[in-house]
Every structure is written in C-alpha cells, then in structure tokens.
Amino acid sequence: MNFKAKQIAGFIVILACLQGAPVFASTASAGAVADEYRWLTFIVFSSIIAATMYITWWASKRVKSTADFYAAGNSISGLQNGWAIAGDYLSAASFLGIAGLISLYGYDGFMYSVGFLMGYIAVLLVIAEPCRNIGKYTLGDILAFRNNPKKARMIAALSTITVSIFYLTAQMVGGGVLVKTLIGIDYEVSVIAVGTLMLAYVVFGGMVATTYVQIVKAVLLVIASLVLVTLVWMPYGFSLPAFLQAVVDDSKVQAQVAKLLGATASTMTPEELGQRFLEPGLFLKDPIDQISLGMALVFGTAGLPHILMRFFTVPNAQEARKSVVWAMAIIGGFYVLTLFLGFGAAIHVGPETIGSIDKGGNMAAPLLAQYLGGGEHSLLGNFMLAFVAAVAFATIVAVVAGLVLASASAIAHDLYVNVIKEGKATQQQQMKAAKIASIAVGIVAIFIGILAKGQNVAHLVGMAFAVAASSNLPAIFLTLYWKKCNTTGVVMGMLIGAGSAILLVLVSPNMTYPLKMVADAKIVLEGAPNKAEFEAKISEGLICEFFTTCQKAEPAKPAVESVISAPQKIADLKELLMRIRSQEAVAGINKQIKELEKSISKAQDDIAKFGSQTTSMIGLEKPLFRLKNPGIISIPLGFLMVILFSLFKRDKRAEDLWEELYVRQNTGLHVEDVSH
C-alpha cells in the first residue's frame, strides 16, 4: 500500500470512529431512528462513505498535474459532467428544503424549484460555451483574459471566496443540524465528519474525485426520489388529478391551511381550504419579494463559482453545452419529483408532525420514506429513512467539496500562482499550493460550522445567490459581450454589486431583531389581546415598497381575536384530559401538551437571551429593508456600475483584446492553449 493509499485508509478509520462514537452515548430520542435500528443506519452510512472513499482512492492515482486537480484534465464527457453539475447543484436545500416547503406551504414551495431550474437557461444561453472557450480553471481566468490580470484575479478571488463562504457556512450548519436530527450524532461531530470527508475528496482526489462523488450522489438522489414518488403515486393509479384531489381532501392539509390563514379561514369550506394549498400566497406573500427572489435564483446560478468550474472539466465547448442540457434534464426531472415528495409528506405524515420535528420542514422527505416503509418501528421503514439520511449526508459533503475546491482554486491559482508568483510557479509548487489552500479552507469551514451552532443561517444561501448575481454575473456577462467593458468597470461593479447585496441583507428581515423576538416570546407566555380591524393604507411612494422609512401600500385586514397563552392552553388541555377516556384522544392531547411545553421553553430561552438587547448586530431595532432578498436592487446596480465605470475610464488593453476574445468565445480557436 503506497503512502497516499495509507492516508486515505486513515481517513476511513477516523470516520468510522466518528460515526461509531455516538452509538453508545445517544438515545432514541436524539434522532429520528429508533435505538434498536441505529445499527442499520450506520451500516447504510458506512456503505456510502466506503464507496465514495474508494472513488477518492481511485481518483488519487489519476491526479498528476494542476489540470487534473482543478479540471480533471478536461477529460469529463458532457453526460458525466451533466450528472456532476446536478450533483453539485442539488444540495440539501433542494432535496430536503424544497420538499419541506411544499409539505408546509404547498404551491409556493414549488416556486423555488422553478427558480433554481430556470437559472440554467441563462447558463446554457450565455455562459457555458464562452467560459469553456476562454477560461482555464477559475472565474479569475475568464475576467483576466482582457482586463488587467492582477486586478481582475484579485477581485474575482475575493468574490469567489465570499460567495463560497456564505454557501459553505449554510451547508456545514445544515449538515450538522440535519444529520443530528436524522440519526442522533452530536452536532460538532457531524460537522467534523462532513469536513473530514470533504477534505479527503478534495485533497487526495481533486476535481476527479469530486466529479465522480457528485455523479454517484446525484444518481443515488434520483433513485431514492423515484422510489419514494412511485410508492406515493401508485395508489392513485399514477393519475395526477386523483393525487391532487387527495391532497385537497386531506384533513391534515386543510388544518394547515386554516392555521396559516388565521381568521380568514373561518369563512371557507374544507374543500376550499384544501384547494388553497395548491394556490400561491401561503408562504411568498409579497409579489415584489417573489420577483426579487426569482431574480437572485435565476441570475445567481450563472455566477456561482463552483458551477462555473464544472465547465472547465470538459474537452470542448460542444461538450460544455451538452453537459448543461443533461444537467437541465436531470435537475428539471428531479424538481418535478419534489412536488410529489412534498405533497406526499403532507398527506401521509402531516404538516403538523413535520413542523414539530423541524420548523423549516427539512424532515419531510426522510419521514415520508419512514412512513412508506412501514413506520418508525419497522425494519423497512428505518432502512428507507437511513438510506435517505445517507443520501442527504452525501449530498451535503459533495456540495461542500465543490465549494472548497472553488475557494482553494481562487486562493492557490489566482492569488498565489498568478498574482504573487506572476505565473512562474512550477507544477509541484502549484499542486502544493492547491492542497494547502484546500486544507486551510476546509479547516476554516469546519471552524465556522461549529461556531455557528444554533444560529439562523438560512439567509446565507440567499445571500450567496444574491452576491453571485449582483457581482459575478454582471462582470462575466459584460466582459464576454460588451466591447467597452474594462478593468475599472469590472472591479467597481463587483465591489458595489456584492457590497450592496450584503448590506441590504444585513438590514433586512432575515436578521435577528431582539425587540421582535422578545415580543413574540411574550405572546407565547402571556397571550395577546384582540386586534381591531385594520384599514387599507396607501403607498407614500415607490421607494416605500422597499424601505421601512415610509408607509407602503397595505390591504385592509379583518379584526383578529385574542391569542391564548401557551400556559393557559396547557391548563385547558389538562382539564380536558380528565374527562376523556379514548386512548387515541389522550395520546393526541399529550402530544399537544409536549409541543406547547417546547414553545414555552423556547420563549423563555429567547427572553433570557434577548431580554437585555434592543438592536440587531448592526444596531437596528427593526428592518430597514422590507424584502428578504436584495436581488431586485443589487443585480441592476451591479450591471449599472460595470457600465458606468467602464465608460468613465478607458482601457486600451481591454479594447485591443476584444476581437480576439470575441473570436475565441464563439469558435474555441486556440482553446488548447488554456486547457493545459
């Protein structure tokens, strides 16, 4: 066994210890798998980890140069790259998050699927082929072709690292929380396990291992989803109208809609409540916010650095286009499946049960798998849940590996090799720099993931897409398609685009506002009085639709009845419990009492944590920006800044290289000069 193989074997031993350690310490209540079936979970997890580590060992023998490490030697076919892109793109947010949103909010959750998929149209039409024809490994290579190389690479590296860290933090925290919820592994151990596996893929196998791990993960994800959808849909004869009618008629769905609508639901029939689940507005209530979110999802995809890197792994532009078409087909097909997964979870598991385990609904797909296999006390049910859990784990690790590789390439290739060493580094120096950068980024990712325990990081994925759409896409698009675009425009456009996106998120409702947290907690503990009927308000101006400094247009709202405190609800339920004889009814009431006790505990924790605070981390008592996603402002601003600053200062080098860039991006002439 050679040294590299021994190192990889060592990683397997470490991971086995990490996976096995919690078995003796945790209890059945720690995760979704019953204690007697915990062994099954670890067998499934270990099998998938062993398979991916074998791929890494096999890939390590093929990585002999920087081209192999960063771009898999341009040896990946269009079909393979399509599956790898799907594996890179279908994160835990796609698999668990969207299915959860659909199970809780119906139609609105599916809008995320549409937004994510539509992003690939922009990639296919304007990004994939030109990037493959003029690039080498990174975003910096594309921008440096006709702009000032050092400045372009520095700003590209900064943007790449920023986007990757936002996305990476959300994935690491999500991985820790979800794996802990699924099988009871301690949060810190989960984060370390994700980080250790990811480092093994990247450091030993580079882009080769990352590519094939992403392919395997995408295949497993699609297979798992197809099996679940088949089992969900089969009882209805694979009839879509019959399945949707079952959703409308389900009492659990109707109860969820009534809960979301509040007083409005009192005038609706059960069938109308069920039908409302298939209509927009239960989650995405502000049309402007919907447009802003859609812009970030559609345009952000084309600017994500770990997605752009994938186009450098294919041998030519034709394969790049083919890979995007395959990716669109796979991703599109998968997102259609999420509709059945979400609705299936809603009618079989129930939104209330899903929300009680995870407020965001991330457990919808695993709980559906457990139900379809026979329930929480069946062998098949726990095997199916374990398989879905393992696929979710592989999903997180594969996406994190792609993000770390993108960050490491920006540091090692753009900054070290081309800025510090001015392109004069040897292959050995470049490989050493790439691996050191990968390890450094991986350690930082693990550290941040552990530090962010218990923090709300859901907005970080939206921020990553917003920064990519506001900073990376304007610079890439205008560099490729506008003759007068130059270094000054690119640098200022990327700085202002990214800066505006980050600033608007920091003053948005995504952040934690102590006064609101305490007020919400007091409603739980003390209740709230009646609210009078709310009269319609007229907007004081267009800017008021975006910022809270003035009155926005608001429709009239009916009066709202008083809210009973959670302690009073518990007292009422306990009194009711004394008069009930049915065991099923008693179990249901005890479950409600436990949920109310949890809400009381959380409210008390919030008051203890935020009671002495009055402002957010940047000193605001309430949001200044009304929207949750800044795309509607930051994306046009990013494009505008590139244009204005390019016109403000002329760059002869950028204009002289325009014709060469134009010919190369459309024909691929001399692409071999930058491929190796």
Features:
29 helices; mainly alpha; 676 residues; single chain; 0% strand
Helical element count?
Answer: 29
The low-pLDDT segments are 1-30
| Residues in helices, as a percent range | over 70%
Strand content: under 5%
Overall 3D form:
globular
Distance between the termini: 30 Å
Order of helices and strands: HHHHHHHHHHHHHHHHHHHHHHHHHHHHH
Tell me about the largest β-sheet. Answer: none
Class by helix and strand content? mainly alpha
For the secondary structure, the number of strands is 0
Task: Give average pLDDT, whole number.
Answer: 81
Measured on Cα atoms, how large is the radius of gyration? 26 Å
What does this molecule look like?
- The chain has 29 helices and no strands.
- With 676 residues, the protein is mostly helical.
